[in-house]
Design brief:
- Helix content of chain A is 36%, strand content 31%.
- By secondary structure, chain A is of the alpha/beta class.
- Chain A has one domain: STAS domain (Transcription Regulator spoIIAA), CATH 3.30.750.24.
- Chain A has a 4-stranded mixed sheet, covered by helices on one side.
- With 573 residues, chain B is an alpha+beta fold.
- Chain B folds into 3 domains: 2-115, Beta-Lactamase; 150-330, GAF domain (Beta-Lactamase, 2-Layer Sandwich); 340-568, Phosphatase 2c, domain 1.
- In chain B, the strands form 4 sheets. Chain B has a 5-stranded antiparallel sheet with strand order 2-1-5-4-3, sandwiched between helices.
- Chain B is elongated.
- The mean pLDDT of chain B is 86.
- The chains are: A alpha/beta (108), B alpha+beta (573).
- Chain A binds chain B through residues 1, 22, 24-25, 56-57, 59-61, 63-64, 67-68, 71, 89, 91-95, 98, 104, 106-108, and chain B through 386, 388-389, 427, 430, 432-434, 436, 457-460, 477-480, 483-489, 507, 510-511, 513-514, 558-559.
């Protein structure tokens, strides 16, 4: 699967990032950069919701990218829907609750 | 009859002659005069006039054939050239016979002659074309041989597993096509002297050359030869080694006995020709390759120099890169060994086995780690973990995790506290890396019973396969380590009896991308099969390795896989 994501404007203050296919070592860094750019732009959205419902595969590098975004932006980065593959990894690593609204910010 | 003969002659455009020994006069008909390029009835009938018309290069051959025929009184035929008065050259064919009188004495010769210039031209053209074709074919063959030779060199370089093997392979592949001997000198970065590999088609001679290299150490300041080529980066080409050049070469040797010895060695080697080419990479000149022609007596030419240059160009980077890989492999191996226990402890009543399969090339330090150590007289700790990522940062995290666990465990920390310590240590480091791990203990309850207690931080849970084949996972998933300020973990506990098997693994096993399927259920089924009937942990580990390899071949793995297997032995075992 080729990595691929797509931005959608949901409301005036919320951008949605839909991720498809693999979220792995090949995608992780580029993925973080893409979110960084959107949140650093002029008149940035108040929050970014990352939709992971169409992710077929996620590995520890993908998890690391999600954790890094959560660490840097806190509640401004939210995780929306998750696929079974993502849920399995988040559950195994005890980070499922962390990505829910009101979850702990890493490195607090 | 005479008319018919004339007709035949005319049709074949043949000329005739008659030579009378008695008078010395040769009579030609007009047709023959024409064949020699003469005007009708201008031939004066003398032998000299005839010989003068023959092509100078053919005179002796013609005279020889005619004289032999006359002596033997036999008929003859000849092909020869004549030079016409206008300078043009024609080919003639003539058939002659000796005439005899009634007493059998030779009276002269008669014969006929035709022009075969056109046929001869075709023949010569054909010969020239064949020769041309052969030359082209020979050139193509040479070209193809050189390509095959270079391909062979490439293959031999690629098949090498380390840089010394690469040097040996290339030197071996170079002989005897490019010299009787080939030597490769390599100066690794930071080394004081070169590494050398020599090859000769005859292995005995290779041994001899190695002795010589050992006996006469490399002199990096030598005015000529390999050291000079490496210093200057210039090719050294000696097309022909003469006795004088040998004398010049050893003139600088002050010890006369040594000079004498060197002379006898060079003479024994029968060296005739030498090419030494520098091996050049981005780092600069990293060595040299030397081709030596010796007992074959062959003299190298400019083509050989060009081929030698090509060989050097092809192997230089490969040699350097292979050497770098060797270095990395040594470093990675050393680091990995430092991060894993040197040997497993012997534990009475337990059989313990570990397996570790690194993903991809062996040049990176893997992120998986395991440990088995004694806490006190009754308790043993078992650790397995996986650091996200590979390389030196991951190695640092591995070291922190492993040693924090040892410190916490031996200072009486509870299971959940041990992982909390690791989380604190990694979180404080803020390295943007995390790890997952399980920390477990086995405590001897009595001769047959062990208490297994385990806690997981973001790591796959330990699997117990009971003696009757029933599988259980121990504990509950907990938070991974090093990311969040606080972790949540759940400690699990089970009693183990003889025949029970305990399997701990890293998620290189479960973290598998499509199209491969290795979900937790499949892993548990593989564990049940591997444990069934196995009497030692080693058996189980081997069978697990084989089963995982069938589902997910090692070359397709993106992550390391580590396994720790514990089998509870019968008290009598």
């Amino acid at each position: 699967m080729t990595p691929n994501w797509e931005w959608q404007q949901r409301t005036e203050t919320s951008s949605v990032l839909i991720v498809r296919g693999d979220l792995d070592v090949a995608v992780g860094v580029v993925f973080v950069d893409a979110v960084d750019k959107v949140l650093a732009a002029d008149g940035p959205p108040a929050e970014v919701v990352i939709e992971l419902g169409e992710v077929d595969f996620i590995d520890s590098s993908g998890l690391r990218a999600l954790l890094q975004l959560r660490h840097n932006y806190g509640e401004r980065v939210q995780v929306g829907a998750i696929s079974a593959a993502v849920e399995r990894l988040l559950e195994l690593t005890g980070t499922l609750e962390h990505f829910r609204p009101g979850g702990t910010n890493p490195h607090d | 009859m005479h008319d018919h003969f004339a007709l035949a002659l005319a049709a074949g455009q043949l000329g005739t002659w008659r030579w009378d020994i008695a008078t010395g006069v040769t009579t030609w008909d007009v047709a023959l005069e024409q064949l020699f390029g003469l005007e009708p009835e201008t031939f004066d009938g003398t032998m000299d006039a005839w010989v003068a018309l023959l092509h100078p290069d053919d005179v002796s051959h013609v005279m020889e054939v005619v004289q032999r025929a006359t002596a033997e009184r036999s008929p003859y035929e000849l092909e020869h050239r004549v030079v016409w008065p206008d300078g043009s050259v024609r080919w003639l064919y003539c058939r002659g016979m000796v005439t005899l009188d009634d007493d059998g004495n030779v009276t002269g010769t008669i014969g006929c002659t035709g022009d075969i210039t056109a046929r001869k031209q075709l023949e010569l053209d054909a010969e020239r074309r064949i020769a041309d074709a052969e030359r082209v074919a020979a050139r193509e063959r040479l070209h193809r041989e050189r390509l095959e030779f270079l391909d062979g060199l490439n293959d031999s370089a690629l098949s090498a597993t380390d840089h010394r093997e690469l040097m040996r392979n290339v030197a071996g592949a170079a002989v005897p096509q490019l010299g009787d001997w080939c030597a490769i000198y390599f100066l690794p970065e930071g080394a004081t002297g070169p590494e050398v590999e020599v090859a000769h088609a005859d292995p005995d001679k290779t041994v001899w050359a190695e002795e010589l290299l050992h006996r006469y150490p490399y002199d990096s300041d030598a005015p000529r030869g390999v050291p000079a080529v490496i210093r200057t980066g210039q090719i050294e080409f000696v097309p022909l080694i003469s006795p004088e050049s040998i004398e010049r070469a050893i003139a600088g040797v002050e010890d006369r006995a040594l000079a004498e010895e060197l002379r006898s060695i060079v003479n024994a080697l029968q060296v005739t020709s030498l090419i030494t080419v520098p091996l050049r990479t981005k780092r600069g000149v990293i060595g040299a390759i030397r081709f030596v022609s010796a007992e074959s007596g062959r003299q190298f030419d400019d083509d050989d120099v060009a081929l030698g240059r090509t060989v050097a160009g092809r192997i230089a980077e490969a040699l350097e890169n292979t050497w770098l890989t060797d270095q990395q492999r040594v470093i990675a191996g050393t680091l990995q060994a430092a991060l894993l226990p040197p040997r497993l402890p012997d534990i009475d009543g337990l059989s313990v086995a570990v397996r570790y399969w690194a993903a991809g090339t062996a040049t990176e330090v893997g992120g998986d780690f395991y440990d088995v150590f004694k806490i006190d007289e009754r308790r043993w700790a078992i650790v397995i973990g996986d650091v996200c990522g590979t390389g030196s940062n991951a190695a640092a995290v591995t070291a922190i995790a492993r040693h924090t666990i040892r410190a916490a465990a031996t200072h009486g920390a509870q299971h959940h506290e041990v992982l909390a310590w690791v989380n604190d240590a990694l979180h404080a480091g803020n390295r943007d890396l995390f790890c997952t791990a399980t920390y477990s203990t086995l405590e001897r309850v009595d001769d047959e019973t062990w208490r297994f207690i385990s806690v997981a931080g973001g790591h796959p849970l330990p699997i117990v396969v009971a003696a009757d084949g029933t599988p259980t996972t121990i504990g509950r998933p907990g938070t991974l380590l090093g990311v969040l300020p606080d972790i949540q973990t759940t400690t699990g506990e089970v009693l183990l009896r003889p025949g029970d098997t305990l399997i701990l693994h890293t998620d290189g096993v479960t973290d598998v991308r499509p199209p491969y399927e290795l979900d937790p259920e499949t892993v548990i089924n593989i564990a049940i099969e591997a444990a069934a009937g196995s009497r030692t942990a080693d058996d189980v580990a081997t069978r697990l390795g084989q089963a995982v390899d069938r589902v997910l071949p090692i070359p397709d793995r993106h992550d390391d896989v580590a396994l720790v297997v514990v089998h509870i032995l019968q008290p009598s075992e």
